[in-house]
Amino acid sequence: MPVTDVTTDPDSRTITIEARFNAPVERVWALYADARQLEKVWGPPTHPATFLDHELTVGSRSTYFMTGPEGEKYAGFWEITGVDEPWSFAFEDGFADADDFTPTPGLPVSHNVFTFEAADGGTRAVYTSTYDTVEALQQVLDMGVEEGARSSIDQIDGFLAA
């Protein structure tokens, strides 16, 4: 499994996930840069994603939704805040209304940095999500974000090998 460690730190209000992939950094970057590839691994296998807009450039906005087993839709957005191709990108990730992708009141927005580095013939990735409050962190933990992220990231090696 690609995920090698998950750390939740209430003091810094973060969830950090480390993973290793059997592909070079450039290939892992290409997966995140291309909406059609990203939607194959963003979200748990039971909730596949569909990206309507996606571009890894500072100031851009990605919109997506995940579809549950019963057809329910969960929408979200990314506001891209930093890009250092192919080594890292940063973005705000929030829950959104499924009709117009406006932020959902009362649900947290996470501040994310995804980094990639060459390691042992593959890629070491570090995914860090920071929340504004400990309560927001706990809210997403209660919603299953750790399990969802793990199952999503654990799909990546299989997709890259196909």
TrEMBL record:
Pfam families: AHSA1
Domain Activator of Hsp90 ATPase homologue 1/2-like C-terminal: 22-160
Domain of life according to the entry: Bacteria
Similarity annotation: Belongs to the AHA1 family.
Record protein name field: Uncharacterized conserved protein YndB, AHSA1/START domain
Species assigned in the record: Ornithinimicrobium cerasi
Lineage summary: Bacteria, Bacillati, Actinomycetota, Actinomycetes, Micrococcales
